């Protein structure tokens, strides 16, 4: 099995169970893209090997071509309307599935999988398109710089659910201070029904926070109280954005793209977290736990019945979970590889450069500042517990569930992301240094490295390994 390495560019590292990865692989073939891909540009699939993603280089060229054409033909306002219409439609359909009462049926899970594939496709599309349009806008002088673009996008982008949650935490903190308290406890909450009811309502609305890629622990009262107490101690965290109502049509389109990029993550996390019982019911038929089930593919899960070969499924799960797995798209569909085949493909795609000799690398400045700190690499929700206050957060990219970590971080460095990415926007709000799009941060850095993050110049220096 051979891969033409020259066709690909490294996209970043993100460890996830097979079920999560499955819906990204053939994103380019999902029917929902027809509504967004109005110029019928040809798109190509991802390659995933043991937590590492590659994307065919031609995708980026295709999106740049599309962005330039939309600007040239003055289709910006038309395309903004298309984006709103398409994403609102998919949002409504996706949220509707979580209201179905009979969640123990295969029909429900099949519908969940189909809608998850749709969401992954439009999410991928808007990520590529928004970054390309931003790049073209700066190059064509529509905005003077990445910094100006980020400022203007932040001023007009709609409020995300995560921003709403952070705002409510800040309001709870203000309530606490008005009562002359500097900390809230479960015992205090038990004696104050009005505040308890408000916090319970808040937690219920954001139960999905903390989950991502089909795994992770959700939000609860204890996490909420911890966040309130942290907000009391540090009022500088999560500044409220002052929104403007007007800007150029191009910036408005980029802001819409940036919003939907983050909101797709929020929608996916909420719906999937709320659907765990349905998946658990399928696993229960043959004695599989949820954490085991998500290492099976979509067709493997939908084929489960009381006659399934449990020992064979468990072997597949253990191999994928403990040894690693890869996914590649062939003429016959998605192929899952493990063992020697996986090792061979990783060797084939590996960068021949010796990363051990790299002591300095660069990226794009998303939020200015200079700090030195200890590196902690986070590539999945399983790693969240490792992160400590003041460490430098190094990630493939951030998602809504990363905000609690970003609040603790002295700086953030990412492999992926453009100036309108989640990491760029949130780090600016938190006023912490952030360098994005390094491509190699999670490959070069190791836990415990001492680094200087110069987010004025966009340079990361390794001071001590």
How would you explain this protein's 3D organization?
- Helices cover 49% and strands 13% of the residues.
- It is built from 18 helices and 13 strands.
- Helix 16 links the parallel strand 9 and strand 10.
- It has three domains: 5-145 and 249-345, no CATH class; 161-233, no CATH class; 355-464, Glucose Oxidase, domain 1 (3-Layer(bba) Sandwich), CATH 3.50.30.10.
- With 465 residues, it is α+β, with helices and mostly antiparallel strands.
- Helix 5 packs across helix 10 (249-273).
- It has an eight-stranded mixed sheet with strand order 6-13-12-8-9-10-11-7.
- The chain has helices at residues 18-25, 57-72, 76-97, 106-139, 146-156, 161-178, 186-190, 193-205, 221-233, 249-273, 276-284, 290-293, 298-302, 310-323, 339-349, 403-408, 422-430, 441-444, and strands spanning 8-13, 46-49, 52-56, 326-330, 333-337, 360-362, 364-367, 370-377, 392-395, 411-414, 434-436, 450-454, 459-464.
């Amino acid at each position: 099995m051979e891969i033409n390495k020259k066709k690909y560019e490294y996209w970043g590292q993100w460890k996830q169970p097979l079920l999560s990865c499955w819906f990204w692989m053939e994103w380019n073939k999902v029917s929902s893209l027809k509504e967004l891909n109005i110029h019928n540009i040809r798109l190509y699939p991802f390659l995933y090997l043991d937590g590492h993603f590659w994307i065919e280089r031609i995708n980026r060229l295709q999106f740049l071509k599309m962005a330039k054409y939309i600007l040239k033909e003055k289709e910006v306002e038309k395309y903004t309307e298309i984006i709103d219409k398409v994403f609102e439609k998919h949002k409504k359909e996706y949220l509707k599935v979580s209201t179905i009462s009979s969640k123990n049926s295969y029909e429900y899970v099949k519908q969940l999988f189909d809608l998850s594939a749709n969401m992954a496709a439009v999410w991928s599309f808007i990520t590529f398109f928004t970054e390309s349009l931003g790049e073209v806008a700066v190059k064509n002088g529509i905005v003077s710089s990445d910094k100006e673009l980020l400022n203007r996008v932040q001023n007009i982008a709609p409020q995300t659910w995560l921003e709403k949650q952070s705002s409510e935490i800040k309001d709870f903190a203000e309530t606490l201070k008005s009562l002359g308290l500097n900390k809230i406890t479960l015992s205090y909450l038990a004696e104050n029904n009005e505040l308890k009811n408000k916090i319970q309502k808040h937690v219920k609305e954001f139960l999905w926070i903390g989950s991502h890629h089909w795994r992770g622990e959700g939000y609860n009262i204890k996490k909420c109280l911890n966040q309130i107490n942290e907000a009391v101690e540090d009022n500088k965290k999560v500044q409220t954005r002052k929104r403007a109502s007007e800007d150029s049509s191009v910036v408005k389109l980029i802001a819409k793209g940036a919003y939907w990029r983050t909101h797709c993550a929020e929608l996916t996390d909420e719906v999937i977290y709320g659907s765990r019982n349905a998946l658990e019911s399928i696993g229960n038929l043959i004695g599989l736990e949820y954490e085991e089930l998500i290492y099976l593919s979509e067709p493997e899960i939908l084929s489960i019945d009381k006659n399934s070969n449990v020992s064979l499924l468990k072997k597949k799960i253990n191999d994928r979970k403990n040894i690693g797995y890869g996914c590649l798209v062939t003429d016959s569909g998605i192929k899952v590889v493990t063992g020697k085949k996986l090792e061979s493909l990783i060797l084939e795609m590996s960068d021949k450069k010796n990363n051990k000799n790299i002591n300095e690398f660069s990226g794009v400045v998303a939020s200015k500042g200079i700090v030195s700190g200890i590196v902690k690499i986070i590539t999945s929700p399983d790693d969240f517990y490792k992160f400590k206050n003041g460490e430098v957060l190094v990630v493939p990219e951030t998602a809504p569930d990363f905000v609690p970590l970003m609040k603790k971080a002295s700086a953030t460095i990412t492999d992926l992301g453009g100036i309108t990415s989640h990491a760029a926007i949130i780090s600016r709000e938190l006023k912490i240094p952030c360098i994005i799009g390094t491509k190699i941060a999670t490959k070069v850095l190791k836990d415990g490295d001492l680094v200087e993050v110069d987010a004025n110049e966009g340079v990361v220096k390794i001071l001590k390994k």
